[in-house]
Amino acid sequence: MEVDVELKPTKKVIVLGYDEREARNLLYCALTYGVNRLFWADGYLMCVEVYEESFKREMDEGVFYVSHVCFARFPEYRKVVEIERGAQLPVVDASDMAVMRAILEAVREASRHRVRWRQNSEKARAY
Fold first, then answer.
1. 127: Cβ contacts below 8 Å, ≥ 6 apart
2. Each residue of 40-62: pLDDT tens digit?
3. Which residues pair with 20 in a beta bridge?
4. CA dihedral over 68, 71, 107, 122, signed as positive or negative
5. β-pair type (80-84, 87-93)
6. pTM given for the model
7. In the Cβ-directed half-sphere of 34, how many Cα atoms lie within 13 Å?
8. Strands of 38-41's sheet, edge to edge?
9. Cα–Cα nearest to 108, from 77, 71, 75, 74
10. Could you give the CA distance from residue 69 to residue 90 in angstroms, rounded to a whole number?
11. What is the CA radius of gyration of the chain?
12. Among residues 92, 67, 65, 66, which one has the least CA distance to residue 78?
């Protein structure tokens, strides 16, 4: 018996919102929001919010929608992060996941541009 296997990798990821945050704020937000895991790659912790509808759209269109990504500097990987009074969140090492690394790279780059734009706007208002 021969099995036909078709590989259909994600063609495109669309991130609808992103924020760079302090790690403690990201962790507390993830805990209170009910996130069941965080991701870590290249010294950053990420909370990636995806709705179930995104998976259907990915299957239909090959485009994966991420509603929001929060990320924070987090130099060392830990499998579990304790947040407060014994509350813990598991962390997935996504260093070898191409999609997660691409998302992190994109939001970091966009965040750098956002900071530069904000600084330039403040300078312009000062004149």
1. none
2. 999 999 999 988 777 777 777 77
3. 71
4. positive
5. antiparallel
6. 0.81
7. 1
8. 18-20, 68-73, 44-49, 38-41, 87-93, 80-84
9. 71
10. 17
11. 17
12. 92
Cα separation of 107 and 30, whole Å? 18
Contacts of residue 22, Cβ cutoff 8 Å, sequence gap at least 6: 72
Q: Which of 3-7, 9-13, 119-123 has the highest mean pLDDT?
A: 3-7
Looking at this protein, which amino acid is placed at residue 32?
A: T
Q: Which residues pair with 48 in a beta bridge?
A: 69
- CB count in 10 Å sphere of residue 83: 14
Confidence band of 86 (pLDDT split at 50, 70, 90): confident
Identify the band that residue 122 occupies on the pLDDT scale cut at 50, 70 and 90: low
Q: Which two tokens stand for residue 102?
A: 């691409």
Alpha carbon 64 to its chain centroid, in Å, reads 13
3-state secondary structure of 91: strand
Question: Mean pLDDT across the chain, nearest whole number?
Answer: 88
The residue to which tokens 């929060």 are assigned: 70
Distance CA(65)–CA(51), nearest Å, equals 8
Q: State the pLDDT at residue 9.
A: 82
